[in-house]
Design brief:
Layout lengths: L2 E5 L4 E6 L2 E7 L2 E2 L8 E10 L15 E5 L5 E3 L10 E3 L3 E2 L2 H10 L5 E5 L1
Parallel strand pairs: 1-10, 4-8, 7-9
Antiparallel strand pairs: 1-2, 2-3, 5-6, 5-10, 6-7
Keywords: Cell shape, Cell wall biogenesis/degradation, Glycosyltransferase, Hydrolase, Peptidoglycan synthesis, Transferase
GO biological process, one term: cell wall organization
InterPro entries: LD-transpeptidase, LD_TPept_cat_dom, Transpep_catalytic_dom
Length: about 120
Amino acid sequence: MPYIIVDLSDRILYLMSGNRIIRSYSVGVGKVVTATPTGSYRIINKIPYPYSRPGGRLTPYGTFWMGLSRPGYGIHGTNNPASIGKQVSKGCIRMFNRDVENLARRVPIGTQVIIRP
């Protein structure tokens, strides 16, 4: 089963299989005052958000949300692609919409997510 490692200092999410990197993605992470929590979690839900706002605008969570077993935190897309690679979120892991959609297709609910400093 694949698993995910999020490296907060490099702001990279790695999709892993065993010791092999299958894919890597640039991510945005939590601000200093709302840091992304480190630890081991699981993906507990996957919710698509296809342009669901009036006027076809993206939600703040972009086109997809994957909730983590730590309540209130998740891996999601963004309506602000310039935030990727920066410390800007309230603790969630932000991805480009095309990347979070790609990742969501590759991992099932229950996938382990390891977030390291």
